[in-house]
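INFO batch 0412 | record 1 of 1 | parsing
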Amino acid sequence: MKITNFPVIGTLLLVGTGLASAESKTLNPVKVPARQMENEPFRFNGAVLNGDARGSGFCAWNSKAFFSAAHVVFDDAGGKWGEPPVWHGKANSMALNPSKGIQSRGYYRWTNYSEIVAEDGLNGDAFGRDVILGFSFEKLIKGKPAVLNLKGVSDLKRPIRTMITGYPAENDYFGVPISGFYLHRTGPGINPYKASAGGALATTLVSTGGGNSGGPIWTMDSKAGWTAAGVLVGGLPSEATVYGFTGDINALTRAVAPLVESNMPDSIKVDKVSATSRFFPYNRAKAIPDGVQKWTDFPIVADGFEEGEVVKKVKLSFKIKTKHQGDLQVILVGPGGFGTLIHNEQGAGKDDLILRDKDVSGDFTDIDPNGKWILRVQDRLKGDIATLENIVLEIAAEGTAVVAP
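INFO prediction complete | emitting tokens
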């Protein structure tokens, strides 16, 4: 369900201040003053946009990564995962500046989340898997990221100070719309959480609003200060539900870790974790036979996609060191023999052939992404040696969850 208007009170907080009442027993969103936006934990926050859908997120663990709620990027009606969202760090204005948004390159999520939603909808057990870890190839914030509290589930059950931050578009408790993208805080306060469906946690006397989904719940540590203990995933007036962090979250960070390092991105398979975009590199430099009209194959094995997923997008990057682009022919062949021509002896007077994130999806859409992909190159004219230095194949896949009868 992609919400483009304010949600009805009591729905998930996907798109979703009024002024908090001094007499209210319920903690309500309060706008964070602009002068405090550089302070912690406010500087870790960002707005997360997925098409027309709006959510919140926070940069934690790594300065190139952010956490948000899975339902911000999941279309429950179609049973499909959305494109990698756009990150707007420290948003604090009526409208977002498109030039300041950072397009994430992908996100990792729990493999069984879509299956749970197909059976039970966006509630219940789904809350206990409602988290994604997005990543970029550039830093999302200046300075260090937020510290993760991997004892979040146990700490949130204790009477300690907590606070929720994010970008609500409505105050659920008062039913008052909130204009713009201004960071809000709910709390600090002491409201212990109790176990809810699917391992999620819930508490009363805490309200936020649609749009705040994916925002962090913070716990105060005497040494580390505010630490990220979980993700806001839903709520009703005077009630909040969060996905609490445990050591299990390390499965997501392990999957993303290679992609946020300074070297060529790599994808690894981690149990119970899947991704919308995966990256497969080939880093072994190899010379192409000079003037031999025969293909030299560079195989790349793609794996780790869920059963039933099909290719949605393919992007190709590579570098071939040469003095004459016009000598070269390049094709990409996917599983099942599907292929597309990448370069056909163009650029006779140019040297190195370099592609960066070239979209070559057309001939591969809807095929099984798992299997052997081959970049085939030949140097058709003698006179100089061409050397392939590296390849990165990026594959985005999608699958439709099977709805239980």
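INFO post-check: The helical segments are 113-120, 152-156, 250-256.
INFO record closed
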